[in-house]
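Protocol step 4 of 6: structure prediction from sequence.
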Amino acid sequence: MIEFYLPIKSVHIVAVIASGLLFFLRGLLVLNGKTWAMSAPLRYLSYTIDCVLLTAALMLATMLPSAVFANGWLHVKLALLLLYIILGSIALKRGKSPSTRWACFLSAIGIYAFMLTVARTHQPSGVFYHLISN
């Protein structure tokens, strides 16, 4: 099964980028009053990308030895993912005011970027790892 690690990781990375770009695009459109950004085709595209992303993530997690996750980076990434989903939901449809939606949108983008650094460094502190490790 490990021989499929690199292709699955590649699918996961592409899905991460596609999901983030689609959220960014839809968020900007919604925040600028373009209601078609919440149309069924775009929502279903988002669901499809996220299903591919989750499937690839679960496949990768089952392939790797448990020692890879010993420092807690994956737990931090999953907690950040939940926060990203909540903030994204508020930004796209549940926010009561434009300022709330914008704040949640920008926060979700920040969380997404930090998740990328946690995944890249395999450290719970992500981008800050190099700053605090010296």
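Step 5 (inspection) to follow. The longest helix spans residues 5-31.
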